[in-house]
């Protein structure tokens, strides 16, 4: 499993976590011609509750599709953060929306805070917070190329929101660079 | 062989529509099914339907055996499922004329859910529902249409359940053509079948039919003739009757006639509609 | 998408979507179904896509009706499919039996979830494997396939349609929630590159046509309604004319042919995947999502120096009895992880016939195995 890159996105239902997972997987496969598996955690609720999107990216076919401890955990809600924070390794990169998650001080690893929700509100559309997050994730992890993620976004969102979503991606990406992620 | 004896009688005008090598049929003396099947075939003949494209689907029961005697593409399927099978057939090939010929138990009990949904969808097919008030094939048990106090082998002291009023049921569900006759109304039945076969949408004709072996014997109409006499003297023609009033009781009137004849969108939608 | 609604290329699809696209690529033009988790996405996708390729989608009132409508549509001349999960699969058993008796080509997909009864609707299971084999009443044989990825769901759905036309019966695709809801890359070839088995049409004029006179491979050609053959078919025991014959002799002749047309062609039907069987001391026999989970255990075991092979069932029914028996001669044990309390393991045990041990690794459903559990069993097996 050494060559797998494992991403876990979590939050609450309705934040677009699942779509973000799909966009990552589609970027890796359709636009980068690599392999990826995307699995979402299904519950009976359509809205609310903790939800999760797991994506495994690999240059090889992915035999085992599940994530035990991800390379990166990105949390968009306190409930989801608390649920999934026990399932990390020492070197797991933890990213949180700083307005939505208060990290446990007891946990040794310091999470990277990002303002996805705030940036989305500034862009005038809370719904694009998931895409802001994707921009941030792309910059921080370098797991995927910017072009592949952008193409995947455009192929997955309603046509009339393409521009807005690309701005959201750029803002998220830039906010990561400000933290020094690009270096 | 029996078939040789039949052959000596000479050709019947409906032989073209019958699998004569399967006759004689299994139905009891005095049963109404032969009369009804004959009438359906005359109606198909007079309607000048393309017989290569006319198909019959039957479920299980005495009436269900009808599909096996007609020389058309014919399907004898599972108990109660004639309607959904026919729905698939018709949607797959809208050029087919699909006739479902089955009994009250098959269509209104085990297939009751399919009956209301086929009427609701207004699938373009003609359903002939032979109602003899009882399960004949299995030996005379209580059915969904057995009248109150009707005696059967599973209600020996008389049925205590309210029976289905089939025209009321399918009318409420959305059928575009609903009629009822008895086997004492062969000419009316034939005219009605011809109309129903031409009708676009879900048409259903209920035919009240004698089962002397079980229903008649257990309810003081011991022969087919007794039951025919009963129909003859107790039927009242009331076209477009209020369907709430066409319930059938053990010894009351049988209201017959054409009850519903309306138009509304049907499936499969004609070409040019619904994007097809 | 082409003007005929065909698509090709690389897509990132869920197993459910891949299954629907596989059906469309195979020429399926009729879908009747009833919503049920986790197979609903197949119906949703078919309701969007069938009108684009000139096909028909209908949502029926229940799974009894769905299966009956699929049979009707097949006799109306279309390739037809339904998709469901355990509770609906139970209801479909009645008309799967009719489909077997009338010899009706069609495909039934079961996205298995954890049962019995309503069970865990959104969570995985493999508890319907014996139901797939024996769920309808009476003696018969069946074909069932088990895909291990969305790509394989696409490929095996096409294969299921082809087998259903070749052998004239409902073919079952026994997948799981895990695969149905998993997204992966799915490559859809262009139409010319997809092999499609056409319906076996009668080769005699209508007046000479008898619906159940088989060809040499025991499969009879099939007329469809409306083409002038004026045939009769019945769920009752019947002769070559399709006429009901109520005798033990007719029953014997018919049932033997229905079973033999599958069993005598089993070598042509069965597909398995093998890895490292030669020289192995223990072989993991699995299928579907469990086979993927088992690969982790196998890799870890091999890293420990254990000689372990993989035997993956792609065709689960008919079961590859001969091959399993052959493998059994040279190994200590089969390890069989499956998400139930022992179903295919019984078949492995029967085929091994005492030549090798069969070690079941059950999981009651709702999740997949922990690979460590399978590894422990492999370690035990070689001791």
What order do the strands of the largest sheet of chain A run in, or round the barrel if closed? 2-3-1-4-5-6
Oligomeric state of the chains present here:
heterotrimer
CATH class of the largest domain in chain C: Alpha Beta
Q: H/E element string of chain A?
A: EHEEEHEEHHHH
Terminal CA distance of chain C reads 56 Å
Number of helices of chain C: 13
Structural class of chain C: alpha/beta
| CATH fold naming of the largest domain in chain C | Rossmann fold
Which runs of chain C of at least 5 residues are low in confidence (pLDDT < 50)?
Answer: none
User: Any idea what the CATH architecture of chain A is?
Assistant: 3-Layer(aba) Sandwich
Q: Which two chains form the greatest contact, residue counts included?
A: B-C, 40 and 45 residues
Brief characterization of the structure:
The complex is a heterotrimer of chains A (183), B (276) and C (383). Chain B has 276 residues and is an alpha/beta fold. Chain B has helices spanning 2-9, 33-46, 82-92, 104-110, 112-121, 166-173, 186-198, 212-218, 224-234; strands spanning 54-58, 73-76, 97-103, 125-131, 134-135, 141-142, 177-182, 202-208, 235-237, 254-261.
Describe the structure.
The complex is a heterotrimer of chains A (183), B (276) and C (383). Chain A is globular, with a radius of gyration of 15 Å. Chain A is α/β, with parallel strands linked by helices and 183 residues long. In chain A, helix 1 packs across helix 4, helix 1 (17-31) packs across helix 5 (146-156) and helix 4 (129-141) crosses helix 6. Chain A has a single domain (5-178), classed as 3-Layer(aba) Sandwich (Pyruvate-ferredoxin Oxidoreductase, domain 3), CATH 3.40.920.10. Chain A contains six helices and six strands. In chain A, strands 2-3-1-4-5-6 form a six-stranded mixed beta sheet, with helices on both faces. Chain B has nine helices and ten strands. Chain B has helices at residues 2-9, 33-46, 82-92, 104-110, 112-121, 166-173, 186-198, 212-218, 224-234, and strands at residues 54-58, 73-76, 97-103, 125-131, 134-135, 141-142, 177-182, 202-208, 235-237, 254-261. An eight-stranded mixed beta sheet of chain B has the order 2-1-3-4-8-7-10-9, with helices on both faces. A two-stranded antiparallel sheet of chain B has the order 5-6. The longest helix of chain B has 14 residues, at 33-46. Chain C contains 13 helices and 16 strands. In chain C, strands 2, 3, 4, 5, 6, 7, 8 and 14 form an eight-stranded mixed beta sheet that branches. In chain C, helix 1 (15-26) packs across helix 2, helix 10 (288-303) crosses helix 13 (371-382) and helix 11 crosses helix 12. The radius of gyration of chain C is 21 Å and the shape is globular. The model of chain C has no long low-confidence stretch (mean pLDDT 97). Chain B binds chain C through residues 19, 22, 51-53, 55, 57, 67-68, 70-78, 80-81, 83-93, 95-96, 113-114, 117, 267-268, 275-276, and chain C through 29-30, 32, 51, 56, 58, 60-62, 64-66, 68-78, 80, 94-95, 97-98, 102, 223-236, 243-244. Strand 2 of chain A pairs antiparallel with strand 9 of chain C.
């Amino acid at each position: 499993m050494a060559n797998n890159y494992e991403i876990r996105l979590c939050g609450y239902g309705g934040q677009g976590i699942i779509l973000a997972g799909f966009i990552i997987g589609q970027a890796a496969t359709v636009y980068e011609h690599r392999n990826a598996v995307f699995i979402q955690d299904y519950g009976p609720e359509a809205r609310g509750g903790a939800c999760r999107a797991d994506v495994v990216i690999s240059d090889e076919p992915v035999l085992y599709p599940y994530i035990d401890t991800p390379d990166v955990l990105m949390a968009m809600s306190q409930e989801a953060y608390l649920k999934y924070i026990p399932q990390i390794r020492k070197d797991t990169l933890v990213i949180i929306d700083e307005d939505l998650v208060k990290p446990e001080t007891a946990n040794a690893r310091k999470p990277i805070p990002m303002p996805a929700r705030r940036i989305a509100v500034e862009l005038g559309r809370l719904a694009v917070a998931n895409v802001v997050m994707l921009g941030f994730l792309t910059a921080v992890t370098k797991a995927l190329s910017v072009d592949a993620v952008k193409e995947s976004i455009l192929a997955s969102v309603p046509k009339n929101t393409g521009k807005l979503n690309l701005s959201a991606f750029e803002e998220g990406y830039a906010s990561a660079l400000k933290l020094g992620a690009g270096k | 062989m029996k078939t040789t004896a039949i052959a000596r009688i000479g050709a019947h005008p409906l032989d073209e529509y019958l699998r004569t090598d399967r006759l004689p049929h299994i139905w009891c003396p005095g049963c109404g099914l032969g009369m009804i099947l004959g009438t359906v075939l005359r109606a198909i003949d007079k309607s000048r339907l393309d017989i290569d494209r006319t198909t019959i689907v039957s479920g299980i029961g005495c009436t269900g055996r009808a599909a096996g005697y007609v020389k058309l593409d014919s399907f004898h399927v599972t108990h109660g499922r004639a309607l959904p099978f026919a729905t698939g057939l018709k949607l797959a090939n809208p050029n087919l004329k699909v006739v479902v010929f089955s009994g009250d138990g098959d269509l209104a009990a085990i297939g009751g859910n399919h009956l209301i949904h086929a009427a609701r969808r207004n699938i373009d097919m003609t359903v002939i529902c032979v109602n003899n008030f009882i399960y004949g094939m299995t030996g005379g048990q209580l059915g969904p249409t057995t009248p109150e106090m009707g005696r059967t082998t599973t209600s020996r002291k008389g049925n205590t359940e309210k029976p289905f009023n089939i025209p009321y049921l399918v009318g409420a569900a959305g059928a575009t053509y609903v009629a009822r006759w008895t086997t004492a109304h062969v000419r009316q039945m034939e005219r009605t079948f011809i109309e129903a076969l031409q009708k676009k949408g879900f048409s259903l004709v209920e035919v009240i039919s004698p089962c002397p072996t079980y229903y008649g014997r257990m309810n003081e109409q011991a022969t087919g003739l007794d039951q025919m006499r009963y129909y003859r003297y107790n039927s009242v023609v009331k076209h477009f009757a209020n369907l709430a009033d066409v319930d059938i009781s053990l010894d009351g009137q049988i209201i017959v006639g054409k009850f519903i004849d309306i138009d509304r969108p049907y499936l499969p939608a004609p070409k040019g509609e619904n994007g097809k | 998408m082409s003007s005929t609604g065909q698509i090709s290329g690389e897509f990132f699809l869920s197993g459910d979507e891949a299954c629907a696209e596989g059906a469309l690529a195979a020429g399926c033009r009729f879908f009747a179904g009833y919503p049920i988790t986790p197979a609903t996405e197949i119906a949703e996708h078919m309701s969007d896509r069938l009108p684009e390729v000139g096909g028909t989608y209908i949502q029926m009132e229940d799974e009894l009706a769905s299966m009956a409508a699929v049979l009707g549509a097949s006799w109306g001349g279309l390739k037809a499919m339904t998709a469901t999960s355990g509770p609906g699969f139970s209801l479909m058993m009645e008309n799967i039996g009719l489909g077997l008796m009338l010899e009706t080509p069609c495909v039934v997909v079961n996205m298995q979830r954890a049962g019995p009864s309503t069970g865990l609707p959104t969570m995985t299971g493999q508890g319907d494997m014996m139901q797939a084999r024996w769920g309808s009443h009476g003696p018969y044989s069946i074909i069932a396939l088990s895909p291990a990825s969305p790509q394989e769901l696409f490929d095996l759905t096409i294969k299921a349609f082809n087998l259903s036309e070749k052998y004239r019966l409902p073919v079952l695709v026994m997948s799981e929630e895990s695969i149905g809801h998993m997204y992966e890359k799915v490559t859809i070839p262009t139409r010319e590159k997809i092999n499609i088995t056409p319906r076996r049409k009668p080769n005699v004029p209508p007046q000479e046509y008898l619906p159940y006179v088989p060809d040499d491979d025991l499969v009879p050609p099939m007329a469809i309604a409306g083409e002038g053959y004026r045939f009769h078919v019945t769920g009752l025991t019947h002769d070559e004319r399709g006429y009901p014959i109520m005798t033990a002799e007719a029953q014997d002749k018919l049932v033997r042919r229905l079973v033999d047309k599958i069993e005598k062609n089993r070598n042509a039907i069965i597909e398995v995947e093998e890895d490292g069987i030669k020289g192995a001391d223990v072989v993991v026999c699995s299928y579907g999502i469990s086979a993927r989970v088992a690969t982790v255990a196998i890799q870890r075991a091999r890293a420990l120096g254990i000689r372990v092979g993989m035997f993956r069932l792609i065709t689960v029914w008919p079961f590859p009895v001969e091959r399993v028996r052959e493998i059994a001669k040279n190994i200590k044990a089969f390890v069989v992880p499956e998400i139930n309390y022992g179903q295919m393991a019984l078949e492995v045990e029967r085929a091994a016939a005492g030549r090798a041990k069969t070690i079941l690794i059950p999981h009651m459903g709702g999740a997949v195995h922990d690979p460590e559990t399978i590894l422990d069993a492999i370690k035990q097996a070689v001791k």
